[in-house]
Amino acid sequence: MFQPRSIQSSMTFRDKIMSMDYVLVLSIFLLGIVSMFAMYSTDGGKFDYHTKSHILRFGVFFLMFLVISLFQIRFWYQTSTLLYLSFFILLLGVKYFGLTSSGSQRWLNFYFMNLQPSELMKIGLILFLAKYYHRISTQDVNRIKFLFLPVVALVAPVLLVVAQPDLGTSILIALGGITVSWLAGVRVKFFAYASILFISLTPIAIAFLKPYQKARILTFLNPDRDPLGAGYQIIQSKIAIGSGGIFGKGFLNGSQSYLDYLPEKHTDFIFTLFSEEFGFVGSLFILILYSIIILRLIKIGDVTRSSFGKLYCYSFATAFFIYVAVNMGMVLGLLPIVGAPLPIMSYGGSSMLAIMLGLGIAMSCKIYKDTPVN
Amino acid sequence: MINFGSGNTVIKSKLISRRMFVLTAAKTIVFCGIFGRLVSLQINEATKYKTLSDKNRFREWKLAPQRGVIRDYFDKEIASNEKVYQLHITPENSPNLETLFFRLKTILNLSDKRIFYLKRKIAKQKPWEPIIVSDNLTWSEFSRINLFLHELPGVEPIVSVARQYPDQSTAHLVGYVSQVSQKDLQKKQYLKDMSVGIAVGKTGLENKLDKDIIGKVGFQRYEVNAFGKRIKQIQIDPGESGKNYRTTLDLEIQKYTSEVLEDKAASVCVMDIYNGDIITMASSPSYDPNSFVHGIDKKYWNELISNEKKPLNNKAIAGLYPPGSTIKIIVALSALENGIWNPKKYLNCSGVTELYGEKFHCWKKKGHGPMNMRSAIQRSCDVYFYEVARLLGVDRLSETAKKFGLGKKVLDGFIEERPGVVPSTAWKRKFIGKNWYLGETLHSGIGQGYFQSTPLQLCLMTAQIANGGFEIKPRVLTNEKKNNLREYIKYKNENPNEPLPIDMLVSNFDLKPLFRNQENINFVKDAMFAATNEAGGTSFRSRYNDQKFMFAGKTGSSQIKRFTELQRELEIKQKDIDYKDRDHALFVAFAPYSDPKYAISVVVEHGGTGSGSAAPIAKKVIKKVLERDQLRENVKNLIGEEI
Fold first, then answer.
1. What CATH architecture is B60-246?
2. Per residue in B406-417, pLDDT tens?
3. What is the least distance, in Å, from the CA of B25 to any CA of chain A?
C-alpha cells in the first residue's frame, strides 16, 4: 500500500510521457497516415469531404488518445461502471431518438457528430467486466450467482444492438464480453452451455432476421447464388483484392473502387481498396501494423500488475484483433458480410472514438502499470 | 486493498496469462489464415482476378462497317451507300422514358405499336445499350429532332450510312440487304462478332458476296463504371469497310432491257460468248430493293407476294421453263455428232405423226411439207424432230444438253439459282421411279415433257454454240476466273490463214471443245441464221438487214397446258386463251452473225409464241448491246484487261 503510492507520487509528467509505449503510438500514427491516403483515394483523388472529415477525426481522436493515456488507471477503474451505464443509456436513447439510415436505427444526433453508441459499448462492456472480475475472487468466478451479472451486462446491450438492427456490431460487442469472461477464468463448460443455448435459440433468432440479413448468410455460403445481388459485394471485393497482384495497381489507380464496383469503400471495404492499389505488399504492411498494435497491447497486459489492467488490456487486444480479423475475413470472402469496420482505417467517427478510447485506456495501463487500481 | 501482490492476485494473474496464451495462439492461427488468403488471392490467382477486373472495367461497343460498293462494268454504282439520318435512344441517359416517348410521338409520328415494341426491347437490354428508334428519318424529321434536342435527354440523332440501290433493274441480280435475323446469325460464321442490327445480304450478289463485302466490324472500347456509364474511351478501331466489287454488268443495257420488258413477267440474259461475262440479266417485273433495307412495310410486302408475276423471283436463274423448240438446236447437234442423221435427209411433215397409236402434232396444223434438217430448224418443224429424237434416244440427247450447260447451276453462290432438269432414262428411274417411254423421247425432242431450264442456261447453251463450241464459264464479277477463249480469238484474228487443229487449241489455249466435229456446230449456226434471216424462218419478222446487227436465233414456246383436240380443231390463237394458260415464249440468239460476240436468251412467261413476243424483245436488246460493244472494248483496252 505504501510502495505504490510512492511510485505514483514520484512520477513526474516527464516520466509519464517517457513511459508511454512509443512503438504503439507510432504504429497507430502510421496506420492513421495510411488511412488518410486510402480515404483520399476513395474520394477519387480529391481532397474531398471524406478525406477532410477523416483527417479531422483522426487528428482530434489521436490527441484525445494521448491525453487520456495520462489519466490515472484508477480513474478508469472507478468510472468503468458509470461509463458502461451511460453507454447503455445512450443505446436506449438510440431506440427512442435514434436516426435511421439504410433501414437501421443506430445513431444519436449530437450537433457536432452523429454518435453510434453501439461502437462505444464495445469498450464499455470490456471495461465493466474487467472491473467486475477484478473485484471478485478466482473461486467465485464460476459460482452461478456471480455469473448472473456478467450475463445480463452482456446480453442486454447485445439485444439492443441486434434490434437496431446491426448484426455485425452486436457480434463484436458479445465477443468482447465473452473474451473478458474467458480470461477471468469462467469454465469452459459454461461457454459450452451458452453455445448450446445459443444454437437452440438460433432458429428463433432467424425468424427475427431481416430478409437482407438472411440473404447475406446464404450468400456467404455460396456467393455465386446471386452474383448481382447479395453476392455482388463479396465477388467484387475478391476481384479488387486479387487483381491488385503483388505490387498493386498504384495509388489512385484502383479501377474497381474508382469505377464504383466496390460498395461501401470508405467504411467496411477500405482494406479492399488499399489492397487493390498497393497489392500484396501493401496488404502485408497493414497486416503487420495491426499485428504490432495487438502485440504491443498484449505486452502492456503482460507488464500491468493489476488484474483489472491485465483483463482490460488482454481483452481489448483480443477485441481489436477480432475487429481486424472479422473485417479482413469479410472482404477476403472468408466470412459473411456483417458490417464491421476496420479499426482506424475505416471512415466513421464513433468507431474511431471507441478505438482511440480503448487504446488510451490501454496506454494508461502502461503508464500506471505498477499502480494499484483500488 | 491489501491483496495487491497477495496470493489470490498471483493465482488470478497466472490464470489470466494462461488463458491469454490460448487466445494468442488462436490469433496467430487466424492471422496466418488471413495471410494465406492474401497469398492465394493476390499472388496465386492474381491473373484470374485481373482478367475479371478488366472484364468489369472495359466494355466494347461495336461499330457496323460500311458495305463495299458494287459497280457495273463502267464503274457506275449499282449498290452504294448513302447517308441516312437515324435516331437512337440511350435509356440510361433519359430520366423519364414515358415523357420522352410522348414527346417523340408528337415530333415523329411514331405509332403506338412501334412505341410498345421499343419499350419491350428496352426492357430486354442493358440500359447503356442504345436502341434505334428510327433508322431512316427524313431531313425534316431529323432537323425537327435537332431543334428540340435540348428537351430530349437520352436522344441521339446520328448520321449513318445505309445500303442504297440506285436502280430497280438490277434488283434481282444484286439482291438486297436487310436486318440480320436469328437464322443468319446461326448459319453464317462471319457474323459472329458483328453487332446486332447489322444489315446482311439476303439474296443475289449481296448474299453471295456477303462475307467479304460486309467489311470488318470495328469497336470502341470504353472504361465504364459499375453503373455502365462510360468514363473514358480507351481504344477505337473503326473497322474496315467491305471489299468493292466490279461486275460484268452494263447498267445502261440492264436499264434499257427493263424498259423493254415493261411489266411483262419475263427475263433477258445477255452473255459475252467468249469470256462468259454476263452483260445483262434482267428479270421483270422488278421491285424496290431499297424497301428491304430499313425493314419492308407490310403493305408493300403483301403486294409483292400476291403479284402473280412474282416480282421477287429472279426468273433468269430461278425461273424454270421447258426449253421448247430452242432445244432443237441441241437435238440436231446431238444427232449429227452421234452420226445418226444425215442433215440432207428429207422428211415429209403432214402436221401430225403417230407412235403406238398416240398422235404427236406439229405446231403447224397443216404441216410443213418436205423438210430437211436446216429447214426444220428454220421453220421449227416438230414432226421432223420427233423422228430425229426417236432415233437419237433420250440418253444421247441428254448427254449433249448437259454438255452445253443445261440441267446444272451456271453461277456460283447464288442461293436462288435452280439447276433445272435434263431428263434421261436414268433420271426418270431415280426421281420418278418409272421406266422411260418412247413417247416421252418425242416430247423431249421438242423441249417439252420433263425438260426444265433457266433462261441463263439457255443463254449459255447458245453462247457455247455461237463461239464455235467451246466451254465457257459465265461470270458476273470481273475478278472471277477468266476464260481463255479470247486469247484464241485474238490469235485467230492475227493469223487468219493458219487454222489450228483442235488438239492444238486444247493444248495451247486450254480450251475445252464440246464437239466432235466443229462442222456440226457450224451447221447449227447456219440453220439458226436461216431461222431469222431467210423467208419462212420463225423469227424472220424480227431480223435486221444491217450486217452490223444481223443475228441468228431460234424461237421456242413451251406448253403450259396441253392443247385439246377441240382447240386444235378451232385453231385457237394463244392470245385468245387465259393469261395463265398461255405458252411461255422463248427466244435464243447470237449476234452479230458475221462475227459473233454475244448470246441472248429471252423468256416471256405466258407470252404466247416465241416469234410473237420474245424475238422482238431480243431484237431491241441486241441492237443496244451491239451499239455499246465498242464502249466495252474501249474499257477493256483502257485497263489493259484480259483480252
1. Alpha-Beta Complex (3.90)
2. 999 999 889 999
3. 11
